[in-house]
Design goal:
The chain is α/β, with parallel strands linked by helices. 41% of the residues lie in helices and 21% in strands. It is built from 8 helices and 11 strands. The chain starts with a strand and ends with a strand.
């Protein structure tokens, strides 16, 4: 899952980015409203963390403009303002949730997971595809009742495939949702990680859980 963080507090951005990346998310950070609007319009983000008090253009205006352009990416607003009126303004501008600074990172992660579940149309923190289960809270994966040890990037890639089980997922889609803007699209990392997942998830004598569709991409078998 790919997240855009828009906040003029560079120290907070660094902490949030590091924490989210440790949780398996790809993260881009920008520090003012105009850049936030530009990135949000151009990138395939799964979630936007948007500060209210921003230089140039405040977060409420950024949110309004995104919604006016029919960009429905979930938005979690971050602000030091705790008055009810301020929260109402933020939510009425199109934000999906509101978090008051200072906050505990555990709560931020919980709200991120909740918004992503809501976007996927699921209330459960578990993703289930066939005999494979991923708990998005604990980042544990079980297959055939046995736990599978995965790295952070392997988890991120598998989560995206599971959220799109049965559908064709192109290499470009994986690059955009699992890595940030610094990713080198000429590298073979997608192939490397697909191979690693197959090695850890496939059962001997059975078709791979991740099918390759030549010229198209990949598909996680739904059953």
């Amino acid at each position: 899952m790919r997240v855009l963080v828009v906040d003029d507090d560079s120290r907070l951005c660094e902490i949030v980015q590091r924490g989210l990346e440790e949780g398996g998310y790809a993260v881009d950070t920008v520090f003012d409203g105009e850049d936030g609007l530009f990135y949000a319009q151009g990138g395939p983000y799964d979630l936007i963390l948007l500060d209210v008090m921003l230089p140039g253009m405040d977060g409420v205006e950024v949110c309004r403009r995104l919604r006016k352009k029919k960009i429905e990416t979930p938005i979690l607003m971050l602000t030091a303002r705790d008055a009810i009126e301020d929260r109402v303004v933020g939510l009425d501008s199109g934000a999906d949730d509101y978090l008051i600074k200072p906050f505990e990172f555990a709560e931020l992660l919980a709200r991120v997971r909740a918004l992503l579940r809501r976007e996927a149309g699921s209330r459960s923190p578990e993703l289930v595809v066939g005999d494979m289960v991923m708990d998005t809270r604990t980042r544990r994966v079980m297959k055939d009742g046995c736990e599978v040890e995965l790295t952070t990037k392997e988890l991120a890639m598998l989560e995206y495939l599971m959220r799109n089980a049965g559908a064709v997922v192109t290499r470009r889609m994986l690059e955009e949702h699992v890595w940030d803007y610094e990713f080198d699209s000429l590298s073979n990392l997608v192939d490397v990680y697909i191979a690693r997942l197959r090695k850890k998830l496939d059962s001997e004598g059975e078709d791979s859980v991740i099918a390759t569709l030549r010229g198209l991409g990949y598909r996680l078998r739904a059953a």
